[in-house]
Amino acid sequence: MKVCLACSARFDGDGWECPECGRSPSGNGYLDFSGGEPIDSFPAESFAELATQEESSFWFRSRNELLDWALQRYFPHARSFLELGCGTGVVLANLHLRRPDLELAGGEPFTAGLHIARERMPDVPLYRLDGRRLPFEEEFDVVGAFDVLEHVDEDEQTLQQMYQATRPGGGILVSVPQHRWLWSAVDEYSRHRRRYGADELVEKIEAAGFHVLRKTSFVSLLLPVVALSRRRDRGKADYDPSTEYRLPRTVERVFTGAMAVERKLIVAGVSLPVGSSLLVVAERA
Predict the structure, then answer these.
(1) pTM exceeds 0.85, yes or no
(2) pLDDT for the residue 40
(3) Which of 79, 153, 241, 255 has most Cβ atoms within 10 angstroms of its Cβ?
(4) What is the 3-state secondary structure (H, E, C) of the chain?
(5) pLDDT of residue 36 exceeding 70
(6) Would 8 be classed as within a structural domain?
(7) Within-domain flag for 39
(8) How many CB atoms lie within 10 A of CB 1?
């Protein structure tokens, strides 16, 4: 079901013109639900750099593998999926390749990211929107937010909106950066509001109405490497984010192998207690 953000009317149908107030979102390769309001944004060029990093980095590839597994393991009958904060579309493009049967959609507040996502996925519906106010009600089987909630002051409100957008019997996949003691220049550059504790995120997800099915850390075997890197970068005024992804080929292979080992443990049912990232899967009753 669709929600008119102007008058809060609920309606179905193919179009987006509200039957109550006549309002409809503008379109320019994507539907714009921002109302033209300015959004505190990253520099546009950072999205192009990010897209390049996503293609080559072990971290993005390994996270994609984990998310694809979690979606199939916990929501095998899902037919629709919305990614909130889809960025340049790297997760959606991976799912589009692996799950052609899945009806995908992406929402993102930053137009620079949406332009790249549109190039990657010409036929996937994309929306410019604010996760704190979604134009959907019980519309998707699964809603995902991957390294998104840490950017939002009102993360609890965003989780409530994810609940609204999810169909009964469906659920959510959420990943976030974990452990406050890892806070560093990376978080400051990325404009993070917080790093999460596992219990904190679970509590907020359950408060939104979900039932948690699984929580596990990842980037666990590499946590000592991450910790040393974060300690080195802490307080740096000249921090260069691209150094995170410019790794020698041999190091990339070793790190990819480590992530594959921990993914096998997670698939086998082991919930890893520590790691620089956290994955939570929850269902809506």
Answers:
(1) yes
(2) 56
(3) 255
(4) CEECCCCCCEECCCCCCCCCCCCCCEECCCEECCCCCCCCCCCHHHHHHHHHHHHHCHHHHHHHHHHHHHHHHHCCCCCEEEEECCCCCHHHHHHHHHCCCCEEEEEECCHHHHHHHHHHCCCCCEEECECCECCECCCEEEEEEECCHHHCCCHHHHHHHHHHHEEEEEEEEEEEEECHHHCCHHHHHCCCCCCECHHHHHHHHHHCCEEEEEEEEECCCCHHHHHHHHHHHCCCCCCCHHHHCCCCHHHHHHHHHHHHHHHHHHHCCCCCCCCCEEEEEEEEC
(5) no
(6) no
(7) yes
(8) 14
Could you read off the pLDDT of 156-184 as tens digits, one per residue?
999 999 999 999 999 999 999 999 999 99
Query: In terms of C-beta distances under 8 Å and separation of at least 24 residues, what long-range contacts does 4-7 make, across chains too?
Result: 4/135, 5/33, 5/35, 5/133, 5/135
Domain carrying residue 114: 27-284
Q: Report the CATH number that the domain containing residue 84 is assigned in CATH.
A: 3.40.50.150
